[in-house]
Write a structure and sequence with these properties.
Number of helices: 51
Radius of gyration: 32 Å
Strand order of the largest sheet: 2-3-4-1-5
Number of strands: 7
């Protein structure tokens, strides 16, 4: 039994009961070392009874190996691998190193975890237990937390135990249970039950020192100095030490009494993470010991062999005590033995890390092996592990060429992992090392190629495209030469991922909100450039190093919300690269366009002016995109017709035989919306979203879903916009993309505003505006301001509406899509308040934008604005023009609003019979869309015109709304109506098949159906 843990035990029993009832859940148990987390987990496993169980434990020495913890956890569930959807199966196989040609898209790996656990459970519940989760590698942590957040109706219970003050296990959004010290009565009972009958003085001292820590209560009495402490002897020497240290001393005291051979065997086991008996036997043999030395350790209850024949330590502190308190020569010898025992072909990463742990000084061969390990980690999206390996390789480097490159790679990988402080540190170190090398070369007149080997990624390629593990040919002139060529034309720029690299981003082109690179794409190598092309990058190698370092620092500033600093750094990086590598400089300026979008239209124009001035070679992959950006929104672009989005997408694909950088096409969607080419942007976003779901690129998917939601809002398809934005918001939260949480919340706020749901609109606006970092404007702020203004306008609070809409005219905001599209609302508010001049400048800009767009719907809105601002003698002609330009089948919300305004004008002109037809048509549209404030206004006007209306009549709502379906249930039933299976739907919506089945089971009675065959008739337009 567990003493003093009734509340905690009840919480875990409730979690198990939920799993048995088909409800999934997760719990993170946190506490100090020895506080009882493992015991609580053991009791939970024992109480699981009929539940299937998968379990694992994090180990400190494997924290640098991506997906090592996950692979250990899922080893029993891998039999269900072939049943997974293809993208998930390929991603998981790539993550585990089972498939060389696929990318381990992190989100697909997380979904694969969810699917595997669900399939492994079969029709019953399952318990997943991870002890010492603070030692899991970052990639495994991300995948498990992602899966835990998406648990729903699979009958899966996940429990993580995390030690405070060690390692890292961040799990925002998951419920936590914190274990504190045992109450005094429970501590005394435990000591009496398990600790025997120590002398009163010993008992008193142990209770005082243990402070309610169960492990201390059990182990301190066994320590060699227990009696001395009780007698007031030499205990003072260790009494002031942290409890964890004293526990380690107690454990080590037990080990020190064992035979020397047993101590050596335990040290080898402590230095290894696998517990694999074959590895341990081979390594032990190197040191002259073997399995015959194991029994004394088992008899001392320090280790045990589990049901899979793996050697395990009784407690993680036993392992730590043995490893950390061993003599340095012995520890180095243990790691050398393990390196020798590791298979260099099947297990090169463990071998490399053991070699590094055994190194006593710089060693280029070991550094090269570690760089290869880092390259493999980066291929598998293990960016934190890659950064650690690159940095360790840099410290072991004897070749200054390789050291600079490895530091740059460490910085870039840390940036990709979101570890901003380390990214900055490594970037600064690389710059200083390159400057030192350049100064030394200048003083010594070094112009001859270095004979030392280098180990760097091939310019313009992903690690997979170069020699194994990222090893590149040797023979560079200096460190800065080597790093300079890494930013060669055709790469994504200094420090940036190559097109299609695993570090590919969710770029938006600045339109609608930029983001810096985010790991999201399949790792496809860029094409190899010619030698002359690559040499361009070395024209000023020190500038190239500085450029890459500046790029890392710019991303750090961006993530911390300092858009101004990020923008300046990107411009500086582009200047450094412009002469040597105009293609890389162009990539920097494209990124700078993103940051400029948050600063103001002057910054956007200035950045695009620099981009236009670059002379790009015809073969540069960035050229079609750069030219499109300049023609679309660059200086002087307003005087010419806009470029066509669909045509630009085709040109971009053709530029590289169809293998275009996905970021560039995503950018085209945003710019297309800025140009008013909504249909083309929507089609392109839909195509790219389907490709991202199938092949990876979840970082891009949320961006694409925002663009789709924008296009659906502009088209008046409110239900579709809610479904798209809700799914995108869920994915954004699951993947920690705060920018898109802000953007998508603001899009949903817009729908709530149109429908008059004041509380929901304000809640979503608050969430959107909370997305800012530092002093920066929240990414979703422009849409949030528009939504607030629209809500107030619909509810008749016109002054408040004008105040909020006027925020969209500020220089830092007025170039945003929502600011442009909100001008007609600003005009209506200003006219109603009798201050039409407040909209003079915005209207002029809107008229010019609409004329350039060439879109009839835009011309219709211009005509509506002119009607509102015109004298009565001229207004009617503008209203008639607007109605004629509106497409009766598209953008019906805007058409209805024009009809409402015209009807109001006619009624005021005492032409009531003419007004009724327009007002009734507007009312029908508003009711169909659920736009309650506008329907109320149309109904009121219709009554004032003398028509018979039913006050407060029910709104005509969709089938899903009438049935009371949630947005997720609505999505699922619509896909089921198309004939998709549960597994197909799960793959498309990133859910488990069991969750899909659960939602269908809940939706059927709401819809009044008993099978999916009846759904097609309910949703004929699906």
């Amino acid at each position: 039994m567990l003493y003093g843990r009734d509340t905690e035990t009840a919480a875990l029993e409730e979690l198990l009961a939920g799993a048995r009832a088909g409800r999934s859940g997760a719990l993170v148990v946190r506490g100090d070392a020895g506080i009882g987390k493992t015991a609580l987990l053991e009791q939970t496993v024992a109480a699981a009874g009929d539940l299937a169980v998968v379990r694992s434990s994090g180990v400190e020495f494997e924290a640098e190996l991506p997906y090592a913890g996950l692979q250990l956890l899922l080893r029993r569930a891998m039999g269900s691998l072939d049943a997974l959807p293809v993208p998930q199966r390929r991603a998981l196989r790539a993550a585990f190193g089972l498939e060389a040609d696929a990318a381990s898209e992190p989100m697909f790996v997380g979904l694969a975890v969810l699917s595997l656990l669900s399939d492994h459970a079969g029709e019953g519940p399952l318990l997943c237990v991870v002890d010492d989760a603070q030692w899991l590698d970052r990639a495994s942590t991300d995948a498990l937390v992602f899966a835990a957040r998406r648990l729903d109706a699979e009958g899966v219970a996940m429990v993580f135990a995390v030690r405070d003050g060690a390692g890292s296990f961040t799990a925002p959004g998951l419920p936590e249970l914190r274990l504190g010290p045992l109450p005094e009565d429970a501590a005394r009972a435990l000591l009496a039950d398990r600790g025997g009958a120590p002398a009163d003085t010993v008992r008193t001292r142990v209770l005082s020192e243990a402070r309610g820590n169960p492990l201390a209560l059990l182990e301190l009495p066994l320590g060699p100095s227990a009696d001395a402490r009780g007698a007031g002897g030499s205990a003072a020497a260790d009494g002031g030490l942290p409890l964890t240290t004293r526990l380690q001393m107690a454990f080590h005291g037990q080990v020190s009494h064992l035979p020397p051979g047993t101590q050596t065997l335990l040290l080898v086991a402590a230095a290894d993470h696998t517990g694999d008996p074959d590895i341990l036997v081979r390594a032990a043999a190197v040191l002259g010991v073997g399995v015959d030395d194991l029994p004394p350790a088992e008899e001392a209850n320090l280790v045990y062999v589990d049901d899979e024949d793996m050697l395990r330590f009784r407690h993680p502190l036993v392992r730590a005590a043995i490893h950390q308190r061993a003599a340095l020569p012995d520890r180095l010898a243990a790691h050398r033995a393990l390196a020798e025992a590791a298979d260099p072909v099947r297990d090169p990463d463990h071998r490399a890390w053991h070699l590094a742990a055994a190194a006593t000084g710089p060693d280029e061969a070991v550094a090269t092996a570690l760089q290869r390990t880092a390259g493999r980690a980066r291929e598998r999206s293990g960016h934190a592990a890659a950064s650690a390996a690159y940095e360790r390789a840099a410290r072991l480097s004897t070749d200054p060429v390789a050291r600079v490159e490895r530091l740059l790679l460490a910085a870039e990988s840390a940036s990709e992992a979101g570890d901003i402080p380390r990214a900055r540190t490594f970037a600064d170190q690389a710059t200083r090392a390159a400057e030192t090398e350049a100064e030394a070369a200048a003083v010594g007149g070094d112009a001859e190629p270095s004979s030392a080997p280098t180990a760097r990624a091939e310019p313009g390629t992903s690690p997979r495209a170069s020699t194994p593990g990222g090893q590149a040919p040797a023979g560079s002139t200096s460190a800065v030469d080597a790093a300079g060529r890494s930013a060669s034309p055709g790469s994504s720029g200094p420090g940036g991922p190559a097109p299609g690299d695993p570090a590919s981003t969710a770029d938006t082109g600045g339109v609608g909100g930029p983001v810096p690179p985010h790991p999201s794409g399949p790792g496809r190598p860029a094409p190899t450039e010619s030698a002359s092309t690559a040499a361009r990058g070395a024209a000023n190698p020190l500038s190239a190093v500085r450029g890459r370092a500046l790029y890392v620092r710019a991303l750090a500033d961006f993530w911390e919300g300092d858009f101004g600093a990020a923008h300046q750094l990107l411009l500086e990086a582009a200047n450094l690269l412009a002469e040597a590598d105009s293609a890389a400089a162009a990539r920097m300026l494209v990124q700078a366009t993103h940051t400029a979008w948050y600063l103001g239209d002057d910054e956007v124009a200035g950045t695009l002016g620099r981009l236009a001035a670059l002379e790009l070679p015809p073969w540069a992959p960035i050229r079609p995109v750069a030219e499109f950006l300049v023609r679309a929104i660059g200086p002087g672009s307003a005087a010419a017709g806009p470029p066509d989005v669909a045509e630009a997408a085709a040109v971009s694909r053709a530029a590289r035989g169809g293998r275009v950088d996905p970021r560039d096409l995503v950018m085209l969607c945003g710019v297309g919306l800025a140009l008013g080419q909504d249909a083309a942007a929507y089609d392109l976003a839909t195509t790219l979203a389907a490709e991202s779901r199938e092949s990876g690129g979840v970082g891009r998917l949320t961006t694409l879903m925002f663009f789709r939601a924008e296009a659906e809002l502009f088209d008046g398809r409110l239900d579709e916009a809610v479904a798209t934005a809700s799914e995108g918001l869920r994915i954004s939260r699951d993947t920690g993309q705060r920018q898109w949480v802000s953007q998508l919340s603001s899009a949903l706020a817009h729908v709530a505003a149109l429908r008059g749901d004041e509380d929901e609109c304000r809640r979503l606006v608050d969430e959107a505006l909370a997305g800012g970092a530092g002093t920066a404007m929240a990414p979703g702020a422009p849409w949030a301001y528009w939504s607030q203004g629209l809500l107030e306008l619909g509810l008749g609070r016109t002054q408040f509406a004008l105040d909020r809409l006027s925020l969209l005219t500020e220089p830092t905001v007025r170039h945003h899509i929502s600011a442009t599209r909100g001008v007609p609302d600003l005009v209506e508010a200003a006219v109603r308040l009798g201050v039409p001049e407040r909209a003079d400048e915005p209207v002029a800009g809107f008229e010019a934008w609409a004329a350039r767009s060439g879109q009839d719907w835009a011309r219709a809105l211009v005509a509506r604005c002119r009607a509102l601002r015109a004298k009565d003698a001229d207004a009617e002609a503008y209203f008639i023009e607007a109605l004629a330009l509106h497409d009766p089948h598209r953008r019906v919300l805007e058409s209805a609003r024009t009809a409402l305004l015209y009807g109001e004008w006619l009624r005021r002109a005492r032409r009531k019979s003419e007004a009724r037809g327009h007002l009734r048509a507007a009312l029908e549209t508003f009711e169909r869309l659920g736009a309650r404030p506008w329907a109320d206004r149309a109904r009121s006007e219709l009554g004032a015109s003398g028509a018979s209306v039913t006050v407060g009549q029910d709104t005509v709502r969709s089938v899903a709304d009438e049935a009371g379906l949630t947005p997720q249930e609505s999505q699922i039933v619509r896909l089921a109506a198309l004939g998709l299976t549960n597994r197909d739907i799960a793959a498309q919506l990133f859910l488990s098949p069991r969750t899909v089945g659960h939602h269908l089971y809940k939706a059927y009675p709401k819809l009044g159906v008993v099978s999916r065959g009846e759904l097609a008739a309910l949703f004929p337009d699906t």
